[in-house]
């Protein structure tokens, strides 16, 4: 150890562990949200041109969106 450096003894406290858990949970939820939204909206774009001629294209989109949310 060179001159001027101090040694700090750190310890893992309940506050630190709670911060880790909260950060990990936030990351999982944000990633899940991005994944669901991406699949949900890409399904609209990919299949929209096929369903524009049908009368029930809006109803099909709602059903497909609900299925994506329930599966993933």
Can you tell me about this structure?
With 72 residues, the chain is mostly helical. It has a domain at 31-72. It is built from two helices and no strands. Helix 1 packs antiparallel against helix 2 (57-71). It starts with 13 loop residues before the first helix and ends with a helix. 0% of the residues are buried.
State which percent range the strand residues make up.
under 5%
Helix content: over 70%
What is the terminal separation in angstroms?
53 Å
Strand runs, count: 0
* Contiguous uncertain segments of 5+ residues: none
- The shape, in one word, is rod-shaped
Order of helices and strands: HH
Structural class: mainly alpha
Helix segment tally? 2
Transmembrane segments: 20-47
Keywords: Membrane, Transmembrane, Transmembrane helix
Short summary of the structure?
The chain crosses the membrane at residues 20-47. The chain is mainly α and 72 residues long.
Outline the fold blueprint:
Blueprint: H1 14-51, H2 57-71
Labels describing this entry:
mainly alpha; 74% helix; rod-shaped
């Amino acid at each position: 150890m060179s001159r001027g450096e101090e040694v700090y003894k750190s310890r893992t406290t309940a506050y630190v562990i709670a911060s880790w858990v909260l950060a990990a949970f936030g990351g999982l939820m944000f990633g899940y949200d991005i994944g669901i939204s991406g699949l949900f909206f890409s399904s609209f774009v990919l299949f929209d041109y096929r369903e524009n001629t049908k009368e029930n294209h809006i109803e099909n989109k709602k059903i497909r969106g609900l299925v994506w949310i329930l599966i993933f």
